[in-house]
């Protein structure tokens, strides 16, 4: 970590860290990045997202698994920014999802705030644990704990 570590990641930096692309890039911005500790992701939920065609016709609800994926992407961006992993073919894999609860529907027009905190992990660690909450207008929509494995190609690490 250097003094130049940004505390915000726009869509350009997010795409330089994550391999995900449409329709599976689920975070638009990450802010309030505290290196290796926490961040807040923002997901602008729009009606033209492909999952709304079938989930559910006439009653569009963001699938819970995509909310959890958006949390994981926020956590990966936080680690990627903290460790200066832009343009380094950084990959992250789910290892576990625990204590996941859904409290409110998320749908078109909502701005989903994804608050993530690292509960285990440090610079250079492969396995990280996180706690996350998804909020809409301050109201809890989802909460869970998850474990992820950070993977870098040998030449980048």
Bin the helical content.
Answer: 10-25%
CATH-defined topology? Thiol Ester Dehydrase, Chain A
Overall mean pLDDT stands at 94
**Architecture in CATH?**
Roll
Largest sheet: number of strands, sense, barrel closure: 6 strands, antiparallel
CATH class: Alpha Beta
Query: Structural class of the helices, strands and pairings?
Result: alpha+beta
H/E element sequence: HEEHEEEE
Structure description:
This protein has 157 residues and is of the alpha+beta class. The protein has one domain (11-151): Roll (Thiol Ester Dehydrase, Chain A), CATH 3.10.129.10. It is 17% helix and 37% strand. The protein is built from 2 helices and 6 strands, in the order αββαββββ. The protein has helices at 11-17, 64-82, and strands at 29-34, 38-44, 91-102, 111-120, 127-136, 139-151. The protein has a 6-stranded antiparallel sheet with strand order 1-2-4-5-6-3, covered by helices on one side. A hairpin with a 2-residue loop joins strand 5 and strand 6 (139-151). The chain is globular, with a radius of gyration of 15 Å.
Question: Can you summarize this structure?
Answer:
This protein is α+β, with helices and mostly antiparallel strands and 157 residues long. The chain has helices at 11-17, 64-82, and strands spanning 29-34, 38-44, 91-102, 111-120, 127-136, 139-151. The chain has 2 helices and 6 strands; from the N terminus they run αββαββββ.
């Amino acid at each position: 970590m250097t003094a130049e570590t940004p505390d915000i990641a726009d869509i350009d930096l997010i795409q330089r860290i994550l391999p995900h692309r449409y329709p599976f890039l689920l975070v638009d911005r990450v802010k309030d990045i505290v290196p290796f500790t926490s961040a807040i992701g923002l997901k602008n939920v729009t009606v033209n997202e492909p999952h709304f065609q079938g989930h559910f016709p006439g009653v569009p609800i963001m699938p819970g698994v995509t909310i959890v994926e958006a949390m994981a992407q926020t956590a990966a961006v936080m680690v990627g920014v903290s460790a200066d992993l832009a343009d380094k073919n950084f990959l992250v894999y789910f290892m576990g999802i625990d204590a996941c609860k859904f409290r409110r529907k998320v749908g078109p027009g909502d701005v989903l705030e994804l608050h993530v905190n690292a509960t285990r992990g440090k610079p250079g660690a492969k396995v990280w644990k996180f706690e996350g909450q998804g909020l809409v207008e301050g109201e809890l929509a989802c909460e869970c704990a998850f474990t992820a494995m950070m993977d870098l190609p040998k030449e980048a690490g």
